[in-house]
Amino acid sequence: MEKVVVSIGGSVLVPGKDDAAYIKSLAGMLGSVSKKTVLAVVCGGGKVARYYSKTGGELGGTVDQLDEMGIAVTRINASLLRIALGDTAANGAPTTAGECAGIMGPGKVAVMGGTAPGHTTDAVAAMVAREIGADRIVNASNVDAVYDCDPRTNPGARRMDRMTIKELSDIVYDEHEACKSSVFDPLGCTIAMEEGIDLVMVDGRDLAELENAILGKPVKGTFIDSSRRG
Ligand code: UTP
Predict the structure, then answer these.
(1) Closest residue CA from atom 29 of ligand 1
(2) Which atom of ligand 1 is nearest to the CA of 185?
(3) Would you say residue 230 lies in a domain?
(4) For strand 198-203 and strand 222-225, is the pairing parallel, antiparallel, or unpaired?
(5) Separation of 139 CA from ligand 1 center, angstroms?
(6) 178-193 pLDDT, tens per residue?
(7) Do the domain assignments include residue 37?
(8) Are residues 6 and 44 in contact, defined by beta-carbon separation less than 8 angstroms?
(9) What distance in angstroms lies between residue 169's CA and the mean position of ligand 1's atoms?
(10) Which of 65, 74, 96 gets mutated to test ligand 1 (max ligand atoms within 8 A of its CB)?
(11) Which residues form the domain of 183?
């Protein structure tokens, strides 16, 4: 069986509108896919995490304190998905990549949030992927693909069907330098590159698309080739 790790953004999981309906459908899809693929899902924090980070910052919180609050929110979001999965959820709420690897198995979906300060849940997904030797990481966000520049400010932005992980790495490190929010966590990108793990970037609200990405079928989003196969 293939092994896949999904990084799902908080903006996809809990945008604040019809969240329960979406999470229920997501859980149904993940449950059925888990019979064909060994699956872990790492949940992001979304706007609730950003609220705590901003408010904590205004109160003089240290970077580590703000990160710890973000981690707490990602873990609460993971609890929502675990509730929706019911018996299909793997037993436990992992707080490290190793713990997650330990509860993964066919027919069950392992679900977790963040681990430690200093990175985002994209990097956690890459750490779990490294731990289990995953076939691919699927990044489910609220953007449908990687673009050659920001599509919100550049109407002519070109959607990338396919790119190499080196090309993605150049983009995310440039954005990181410019303190811009990135399509994928730079550390996560480095881990995927070092380990030769492919990445697939898809719109997480499109469940058919997300399922295709998990199963390694063609997607409308962006396939990022780690060149593992030559
Ligand atoms: P996210 O993974 O949601 O961060 O974790 P993000 O990518 O900035 O947010 P989205 O994708 O737009 O929703 C939320 C915050 O929690 C902390 C970080 O501060 C992160 O920005 N965090 C999360 C950690 O410090 N360590 C972790 O392992 C995970």
Answers:
(1) 114
(2) 7
(3) no
(4) antiparallel
(5) 14
(6) 777 788 999 999 999 9
(7) yes
(8) no
(9) 19
(10) 74
(11) 2-225
- Domain presence at residue 189: yes
Q: What is the mean pLDDT of the chain?
A: 95
Domain contains 172: yes
- The number of folded domains in the chain is 1
d(CA 230, ligand 1 centre) in Å: 33
pLDDT band at 229 (very low <50, low <70, confident <90, very high): low
Tokens of 152: 């919100």
Checking DSSP bridges between strand 198-203 and strand 162-164, what pairing results, if any? unpaired
Q: How far is the CA of 76 from the centre of ligand 1 (A)?
A: 13
Q: What pLDDT is stored for residue 230 in this prediction? A: 43
Owner of token pair 């196969």: 229
pLDDT tens digit sequence for 140-173: 999 899 998 777 788 888 899 999 999 999 988 8
Q: Angle at Cα 191 formed by Cα 185 and Cα 197, nearest 5°?
A: 105
Residues with CB under 6 A from ligand 1: 9-11, 44-46, 49, 66-67, 70-71, 74, 114-121, 124
pLDDT band (50, 70, 90) for residue 228: low
- CATH number for the domain spanning 150: value is 3.40.1160.10
Return the DSSP state at 158: P
